[in-house]
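Model: You mentioned two targets. I'll fold them one after the other.
Researcher: Yes, keep them separate.
Model: Target one:
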Amino acid sequence: MARIAVIGAGMGAMAAAARLAVAGHRVAVYERTETYGGAVRRFERDGFAFDTGPGLLPLPAVYRDLFVKTGKEPLEECVELVQVDPASRHVFADGTEVSLPNASRAGVVAALDEALGGGAGQRWGDFLVRAREAWDRTRRPLLEEPLWPNWQVLAEREPYPAVPHKRLLRTRRASTLAEIGEWELRDERLAALLESHALAHGLDPRTAPASAAVLPYMEHAFGTWYVRGGIRELARAVYERCVQRRVEFVFGAEVTGIVEKDGRAAGVQLAGGTSRALGSGGGTVAEADLVVAGVAPDALGRLVTGAAVRGAGEVAPRRGAPSRLTVLLALRGGRPEGAAHRTVVHAEDREAERDLLFGGPGGMAARPTVTVLRPDDPALVPDAAQESIVLTSTVPAQPQEDGWADRKVFEQRAEAMIAVAERAVPGLRDRVLWREVRTPASIEEATGAAGGAIPAPALAAGAGHLLHPGNTTELPGLFTVGGWSHPGGGLPHAGMSGALVAGLIVEGPEFRGSQ
């Protein structure tokens, strides 16, 4: 039995803690804030409740597996999972609207053909077939296995089987998501639908590799799910499973360093006034045999001294990822029956929006892409005569001293988001009782990621720029977990990172993932 110190109580860290505790290890989690869940938080006021992080759950099988492997009660006995149907409604710049059924290729094809015409549904359906090939080729190395030592193979090989396209007397194949939209989908609305999946993860469709086609495929193949009471309920269930497995949590405990002894990790250094040593009854050092760090790259770099965290030739941590602006709306008037749970209102000028987010000549996008979440959930409102809505939009991640940290800038952006959302919810502004704006600074406070940056899932090709560092480090005894480590960001990926770290610790370096 090893003593294991886990830094952070995010979803990946808790998933690892539960699995390690079941394997017989003594696990203590040290969390800087006063609660668990990382970015999976809840805001409550006047009887209204809102998810301030992810609002939907893809690939619930990851958490089903966690609960099967760590206790008797399956996930469905701990939370109520609901399949969202339609999976999404889309309002395009030209006013066209379409609702896409959940996990039904035939239904999606028919809906797109009816709404967009011109064989649009068939082109999208054919694209999903090719996206499945990319998924089949990368699912194990990019989700279910530790990062390959020869990860350069993943960086160099494009798994998406692009259709040959004749252009200027040359035959080319799409190498980016934007090129798939232009050359294969051949419809501005289909291109916007495709690119919205990249934007939601903070990826520039113009540079995201064609392998990013797996993002819409995952949603199509495995469905879109909601947890009754909000996604925060999933975090609660994982936390309670950890407690049942006798994982110790210490909240308000800021880790200021990783202790090294004899060339390996030997514990964590805690800030004054928050410390308690694992098994020692006091002091500023929590001794441990192994350390699992669920923190962003910049934070990890500050914790390790005297040894490199990453060796030469390893994947470099991704920095400069965008963030998210969230507007929580408490509304008078109940939710109309049949309203879509999720509506994506697409930007009027996609190029200007991409320039704003990822650099270029464009300025502030007056009408950004906005996701509108309208859960049909009585737990989130005081009564049936009121409604809670969450608006989200991708924004640049910026340090606190930058102008984006100016509250007035965010309030102006929130006004623009509400104006956009009215295309999906007519009369929205007149129904607002109050609103709460959650900025990138809120995300930084919850997760510690500089500028409130949000990690994207790992993707193949693209010269490896969208791979994440492996879960082992150059410092023996130190492992990394969560969205900034392999296999990257997102709820399912965080859960898988916990499984991978537990496997590497329990089975050793020969561990090759779940079978």
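Model: Target two:
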Amino acid sequence: MKNLLQQLHQLDGKSYKGYKSVQGHYTYDNFTLYIDYVQGDPFAAPSKIRVVVPTQKRSIKNEWLENYHRKIAAADRIARSVGKAVNGSKFQVKGSGKSGAVIFDTPGQEVLERSAVQITSSSITVCLSVGLPANGRRINGREAEKLFGQVIPAIIKNSVFTITDQEIEAAVQLADQQEAIRHEMSKQDWIAFIANGSILPRESGVSNRPLKQAIPFQSPSENEVEISLPHQPGPIKGLAIKKGITLIVGGGYHGKSTVLKAIERGVYPHTKGDGREFVLTNPDAVKIRAEDGRQITGVNISPFISNLPHKQDTQFFTTENASGSTSQAANVMEALEIGATTLLIDEDTSATNFMIRDYRMQQLVKKAQEPITPFIDKVKQMRDQLDVSTILVMGGSGDYFAVADEVIMMDEYVPKNVTNQAQSIMEEYPVERDSATNEYFGKITNRTLKQNSLQTQKGKRAKTQAKGLTKIIMGRSDISFEQTEQLVDASQTRMIAEIIQYLDRTNGLQRPTSLKDLLETIDKQMDQNGLASFAAFQNQHPGDIARPRKYEIAAVLNRIRSLHVLQID
């Protein structure tokens, strides 16, 4: 450390590029500092550093590393303490540009595997980005001494060395309880569970925090189950949604979409105090919606759409500007291609003609003139032939009562089981519309992506860069995916950008393999070698990345404008 501070003192007033000489590692009393990357000027992307704390200085219990969910929960809890210390730092480092900025990838409400904090039996690694201080384009050595001599040590002291074992243990035990619920869900064939007392509404449209004074969730008695959990004396009770077709109905503003949004996010575990800690969903559940204008490349949408005008091929459907119905059909088929077993759909974000054609419209527009087989005619086939369940928010068409296994009505944010009433209505007012004549769902076609899909070159350099949550710049083009609703953290987007760059760098699409198998290989690599294994420079700061699901990786790849595919069965 003394050598580093002495170097910084000597660099004071020199050209900013002189900072390159401090790259390397330095031993402090309680940790080792690695300066992996030094920015080119004070206005460029900040420099990347790692702090590695040996477990002789801050112990990590072996039981925290017993399995995946425990390890991620422990790392997440430490990361939250680092984020709090960074945001609460009282030191001010002066200078121009990004001088003195300390940036850390603080977790949100979801608990994700991320690179910000990594724990092993031998060390805790904290990844930070810092703005090296400058006056204009000259080194401000005094302020740099303060940054590395006071600010960084204080952040580590106030987080890694301040957080108690009890705090980490509480996070690990919550993860155990969430896993116990998932185990019971799998055993009982439930696709979602919402605990009594859960707080589902969020603070606002731009905040993911729980709404204060919200009505706590209470399961209808007909759907209420109880599950024994570790680390607590009594069981937990709540609503279980079984495999099959479940409708969530009710008047406007009564909480239908709020429930579906909570279920949609239930594919991820949530941190203590979120209100949705015990809202858990089948991890292979995918939110489906219409997405006007999206790119579609080589998708077999013929189970839903065929006989388009001008003889357009729907078994290998390609368009740069999809309609509501074709985009929703493609979103369903792409999800099924990757292995989705539960679809989550809200009528508010669906194409009406994709979801339903009523009796009167069928009389006016005959079957021979209508290329779309609506979702209502396919949902039971998916259940019975593909073992794919659907949770559907529906407030406008009672025809869906005829295909539903369960109907839950939201009444002033309180769920009620109205399955019997819905069935009675169907007996009194039978469906008049004609169902689809084809008794089989149709073929789910696998595709392989071609290597020339990845046009990452921009001039002489390959560039793939995430811009916020819903956009990646790849070479000279943008990949936009604003309506991929289960992507929840910008660090996941950065990870997907790293994966694209990795596939380009290693010619990962050269060998013909199905998209499904490719994503399973990527998942396996993340499991075995970690997120950083996709980064260009091994054993360095891997960037602020978090693990995405295979469904969101697929969603981004499917929206590449230069995508080229082959169907392989």
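Researcher: Noted. Anything on target two?
Model: The longest strand covers residues 47-54.
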